[in-house]
Specification:
single chain; Cyclin A, domain 1; Collagenase (Catalytic Domain); 2 domains; two-stranded antiparallel ribbon; 6 strands; MetalloPept_cat_dom_sf; MtfA_fam; Zinc-dependent peptidase; metallopeptidase activity
């Protein structure tokens, strides 16, 4: 009898495991099909002007993505912050921009977003001269953790959304890291469709990263700036910010990088965005 109970439980668990993706897909389709709340539309118009630039089909798709994102990803206030719908929709709209073109899930590793009123402090080990490692406190506007959390400063989220032409967007930056971290730590090489895609991506991005560092070392300015030269992961995240906010400028200065990002995101924002 006990063996039959165990077998029944095992079969039940297997059936749930097989059916769960189907149920999740159905639930998401229902969420996307729901009317987008009028109050949320007003928030997008007021807080996220980049949405109005999207072609109509992409605006519609973005709204569906927002509905699923907010149904599945808790946004939790920290340091006394009370999270409002204005904050939730503003965060979600920008977080879903990198999902517009390619079907790659809704940041499957992400469990929650932690939202702070402003910059927050973290401690990180720093290598000092002589091989000494010491913890150093730093104020950050955002951070993406492999453990399934994104930390954001609401002040910086709001500022990034308000100016869609400056190439600086902390939400896009940190969610690019989330895409990069799908298979582990961020290294500037998110999962791609094939080995050939990976080889091309690695060659293009490494060459551009090296060129950027060389330019900066010689005092030559670049659209991507100093922070993109600190690590390949930051190069990808900063380039993603420019891809969505200053696509024409990125295509002009770094055409090969733009082409790789267009393939990855399956979008061509230079055709419909400013910058």
């Amino acid at each position: 009898m006990a063996l039959l109970v165990v077998l029944a439980l095992a079969l039940g668990l297997m059936a749930w495991w097989l059916a769960e993706p189907w149920w999740r897909s159905l639930r998401r389709a229902r969420l996307r099909a729901q009317p987008f709340p009028a109050a949320w539309r007003r928030i997008l118009r007021r807080r996220v002007p980049a949405v109005a630039r999207l072609p109509a089909p992409l605006q519609l798709r973005l709204k569906g993505l927002i509905q699923v994102f907010l149904a599945e990803k808790p946004i939790i206030g920290c340091a006394g912050l009370t999270v409002t719908d204005e904050m939730r929709v503003t965060v979600a709209a920008q977080a879903c921009l990198p999902l517009l073109g390619a079907t790659r899930g809704y940041y499957p590793e992400l469990r929650q977003v932690l939202l702070y009123p402003g910059a927050f402090w973290v401690e990180r080990p720093v290598n000092e001269p002589g091989g000494v490692v010491q913890d150093q406190r730093r104020a950050l506007a955002g951070e993406s953790w492999v453990q399934g959390q994104v930390l954001l400063s609401w002040e910086d989220v709001r500022a990034g959304a308000a100016d869609p032409d400056d190439g600086q967007n902390v939400v896009i930056h940190e969610f690019a890291h989330q895409l990069d971290q799908v298979n582990g730590g961020a290294n500037g090489a998110p999962p791609l469709a094939s080995a050939a895609d990976h080889a091309r991506w690695s060659a293009v991005m490494q060459q551009a990263f090296d060129e950027l560092r060389a330019c900066l070392a010689q005092g030559e300015p670049s659209l991507l700036g100093d922070y993109a030269a600190t690590a390949p992961a930051e190069f990808f995240a900063v380039a993603s910010e420019c891809f969505f906010e200053r696509p024409a400028a990125l295509r002009a200065e770094w055409p090969a990088v733009y082409r790789e990002l267009a393939r990855f995101y399956r979008l061509n924002p230079a055709a419909w965005a400013g910058g």
